[in-house]
Inverse folding.
């Protein structure tokens, strides 16, 4: 599983990263998680609002901090693909 957290490094982006790691730990799932702060790389995803969460190349969340339950649901969906 490939997870990308996109954002400039603000506290909101850091919270998305923390919640994502918490969910992965709780679910005992290994994933390639990267935090992308480079604005040019973020723009390659056609994302202009951060924070954003991308799982397996699919944009799951834009411009907000998702609840852990939402992240868990998205991880479950992608785990089964």
């Amino acid at each position: 599983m490939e997870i990308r957290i996109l954002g400039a490094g603000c506290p909101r982006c850091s919270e998305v990263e923390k919640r994502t790691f918490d969910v992965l730990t709780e679910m005992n799932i290994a994933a390639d998680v990267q935090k992308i702060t480079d604005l040019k790389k973020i723009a390659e995803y056609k994302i202009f609002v951060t924070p954003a969460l991308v799982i397996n190349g699919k944009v799951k969340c834009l411009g907000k901090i998702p609840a852990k339950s939402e992240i868990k649901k998205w991880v479950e969906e992608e785990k089964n693909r």
Notes: The mean pLDDT is 94.
